[in-house]
Structures are given as C-alpha cells and as structure tokens.
Amino acid sequence: MSMPQVLDCTPPRAFLGRNADLRTICVRGGYNPFDDPHASILPPLYRGVTYVMPDTKTAERMIRGEEGGYVYGRFGNPTVTMLERCVAALEGSYILEYLSHNVAALACATGNAAHRLLITHFCSSGDNIVLSPYLYGGTRHLVEHRVSFANIEARFVEDPTDIESWRHHIDERTQYLFVEMPTNPHGYMYDIRALADLAHFYDKPLVVDSTIATPILLRPMEHCADIVIHSLTKTMAGFSQSMGGIIVGRKKLIEHLQTSEARDEGSVLSPDDAWLIRLGIMTLYERVQAHAENTLQLLCVLRQHPRIKNVWHPLCGSHPTHAVASRLLEGFPPVLYAEIHGDETQTRKFMDALQFCRNCVHLGDANTFATHCWSTTHGVLKPKEKESSGIFPNGVRFSVGREDMGCVISDILQALDVI
Known about the structure:
Blueprint: H1 21-28, H2 56-63, H3 78-92, H4 96-99, E1 103-108, H5 111-122, E2 128-131, H6 137-146, E3 153-156, H7 163-167, E4 174-180, H8 192-201, E5 206-209, H9 214-217, E6 227-231, E7 245-250, H10 251-259, H11 261-265, H12 271-281, H13 284-304, E8 308-312, H14 322-328, E9 335-340, H15 344-353, E10 358-359, E11 369-371, H16 383-388, E12 395-399, H17 405-418
Parallel strand pairs: 2-3, 2-4, 4-5, 5-6, 10-11
Antiparallel strand pairs: 1-7, 6-7, 8-9, 9-12, 11-12
Helix pairs in contact: 1-3, 3-12, 15-17
C-alpha cells in the first residue's frame, strides 16, 4: 500500500538492516559444531543436572568459580551457555568491550527474574533506584510493591526526557538508573548517552531493558549503557514457546552474579527453554524485518482512522521522542499503542469484536495480539499508578505479528465499525 503523507516517519524504510552480520550471529552465535564430539550442526540439548569432576582439588576450584566447567544445574549448563554467548555477541559485537572479551551474559528464568537479580545484587535496605515511570506493568509492580518490603525505594522521575528531572532524584543511596526503551506500550525513547553520562558522573550504572527493540534494532551498550536486560520470552523466542530473561554486561559483573546471587536465588533458565529460545533466535533477524514492515503498514492505517484518537509509536512523527528514536532505532519495533475515541466500555466492545487478532497479554509473537493494558498487563496497578504510567482505559496495545496484513487490518477496521 502507498504511504500517506500524514505519516512523518524517519527512517523512511521500515527496516534499515545497517548491520547485516547480526544475521550471521543469529544463526551461528554461541556455538561451534566442532566443540561437540559429534560435530552436530544443531546445538545439542544438555538436560543433565550434575557433572563428573576429575578430582577434589579441581572440584573445590570449580565450586568457588576459580576454574571453568560445569558442576550442577543451578550453577550453569552448556545449553544455557550457548544462548548466553549468542545474546552477548548480538548486544556487544560492535563495541570494543566485546572485542576485548569483556562482555558476557547471564540467562534467567524470566525477564522479571533478571530484574530481581539485579536489584538483589545492587541494593540493600535503605537504597533506591531512579527510574522512568513508563514501564511494563509487571516490572513496575515489582519495583514499587514487592521490592519496597525490603525497604528499597523506587524513585520515579517526573519527566524521563529531561536530564535534570533524573538528577533531582539521585543521591548517595542511589544504586542505578533504569529505563525501558522503547517503553511498553508507549514507545518512549531516551537519549541513552546523555543518561549514561549522568549516571557515570555520579558513579552509577545505567540499566536498559531493550526487550521490544531486540539487539537487531537497538544495542544500548553501543551508546554507553552499562547493563542490558531482555525478556527472552518475547521477540527473541518469537513463537510463545518458552520463558526466559537475560542480563548482558561486563564480564566481571556477570561472573559475580553467576557465582553468588544467581546460585542463591535459583532463578536459572532451564536447558529446554534455552534450547528452544536459541532455535528461535536463528530466525530473529528475518522476523524483526517482517514485524517492522507490517508495523509500518498498520501504523499508516490507524493514523488516518476517525475512530482512533492517538497512536503511539516511537517512529511516528507525532511521538514526543521521535527525534531520539529516529537516531537510535534501526527499524520499526512491533508494538504500538492506540487510543480509541470513546470510553472504556466502547474500548472493551472493540476488543471483543476482534476475530482475527488474538486477545493476549504477550508480545513479539508471529501472531498479532491486541491487549487492553488497563485491565490486563497493568491491571495489578492502582488507578493512579496506571495513569502515571500513561495507561488509559481507552487504550489498546497491538503487538504486530507476521501474518498477511490484509487479514489484520480488515479485522481491526470491522471491529472499529462496531463501536
């Protein structure tokens, strides 16, 4: 379909593909067939819980983390290691730190487990985290309610696009700064380098959750972020087949997490899930490209529809952080948020009228999902918390899949006609 003039998007194409060698990392990263005794082209699945150690001296060193190898499933697994090396390569292959073998990754059971692991590592009673209020509902509930039991404070900045707003909340008990980008579901993007400079001025790390973009569209460490988190469950896995999370950072941090907090908390990723997610990543590059092209098509249609009040997507010209997004993103992330002209009742009527789009709380799948965030993904939050997160009763999040867009768009148009 032709692109209407009302849509001012930069870049002009849905997917730039500036770093085509990421495609090779998706296919081959983290695994060399000649490391396998049978040279299997498919990465093997190691389900074993424990491993034989050659002697007591070596065993002692391995337990302490002073020598490599595998001891027990909670301490590490060869299949999980393959996945960790692949994601570390995707995130860090364009920075000097990675080239000097100083970037690594740690896989966890879920994305929220990864967040909790970082909080446990950095924070003690009386400490605080300074962060954007525009977060996935589960993450916000974790930092605002669960972590508060340990007397750890979540300090939400009033305007995440204003550096001084961040500076105002930082003190000697601040342990790190945290943002999602693009945010779920509004797609806010921030100047990573400016935030990193601020964090480093106060000797704090900057943590970025880049789940929606994936390393194909955004690699925050290239812009001086210290730590990157992903929910692997989403686009990285790609088919709703497995749950997982991952932390990417400097090797010293990752090794400490592996030998202390990760062992103690037991939030490890199972080898079966790691294997399935690794298979999913083999097609990540092509999938992200297909998602981007479909997202641009849907964005063009929704922007012109009289029943749509507003559409939030970082590469939409009307988005408040469009300028930053067009500088950082290498294509259209597959999530957009649409406000319907109407109230919550009419919005629920629209949702219930959808026949092709799936009503799911997930994102990044091959299927297109529609989500009423007010009642689901952010449903655990109090009304004021939802509002401060920018979640509206008349808002619908679309996770754009890879189907023929004619089916998706026809379904959305007929549902809009119902209200």
